[in-house]
Amino acid sequence: MDFLKRLFTKEDIRKNLERIDPEKIPKHIAIIMDGNGRWATKRSLPRTAGHKAGIEALRDVIKTCSNLRVQYLTLYAFSTENWKRPEEEVSALMNLLVYYLRNEIQELNENNVRINTIGDISKLPQAALVEIEAAQKLTRENDGLTVSIALNYGGRLEIVNAIKEICRKVKNQEIEIEEIDERLFSDHLYTRGIPDPDLVIRPSGELRISNFLLWQIAYSEFWFSKIFWPDFNGKYLVDAILDYQERDRRYGGTK
Ligand code: FPP
């Protein structure tokens, strides 16, 4: 665990890091990055300032996941319902995505991070699509942390789309109805090839799932915190992992 100790200097974080069991690091962590708006309002700032500040948290969390050898990190950045927000906020979020990818992609690549997206990105502005494609192309061969950014993502829509695609295949006699099982269904989701999340984190005090990875979280462990996303960082991630490592995952069986 020496590589971890070098990461953090503050004594309390180091102590917590020493308690982490490297054998039980969650393979896949999914995060609902919530509370940006309230963080900003509390400081009499526009909501968009909260989203901007959220990027700092994102940076720290990606770095920490990478160093802890987490394999998959999925981030809820923009839901199918978020289009209902004022146009100004939607546009600020899209600009932030462009800014983030443009400015961070080199460093992410140097850190062996692979960028992926989930959701119907075809509805995103052209500038965002260009950056996403470039980021995916550049990081395609990386085999460190896979960061999946959920953009125009909705869990229900994902399930409906999977059903449509499977029905189409049955109709075209590409598959038999009897072949449909949980595995085949999973392979028709945006997350195909990615294991289900072991740990789902939601900051900001809300205790709901908000249409995020509905199928995939069947046996995930949850960790909630009252802290707003812009105040989140590697220290809280370590706390969440420590808590996760205490859980007894039985998957419906007995001990
Ligand atoms: C939810 O907080 C947050 C979002 C809808 C956007 C999250 C985006 C970022 C952290 C930055 C951009 C991301 C990338 C990947 C570049 P909220 O606005 O619902 O907060 P509230 O509940 O306090 O209003």
From TrEMBL:
One of its GO terms (biological process) is polyprenol biosynthetic process. Substrate binds at residues 35-39, 47, 51, 79-81, 83, 85, 202, 208-210. It is an enzyme of class 2 (transferase). GO terms for molecular function: ditrans,polycis-undecaprenyl-diphosphate synthase [(2E,6E)-farnesyl-diphosphate specific] activity; magnesium ion binding; manganese ion binding. GO terms for cellular component: cytosol. Its EC number is 2.5.1.-. Keywords: Magnesium, Metal-binding, Transferase. Binds 2 magnesium ions per subunit. Its cofactor is Mg(2+). It holds the Pfam family Prenyltransf. Belongs to the UPP synthase family. This is Isoprenyl transferase. It comes from Geosporobacter subterraneus DSM 17957. The lineage of its organism: Bacteria, Bacillati, Bacillota, Clostridia, Peptostreptococcales.
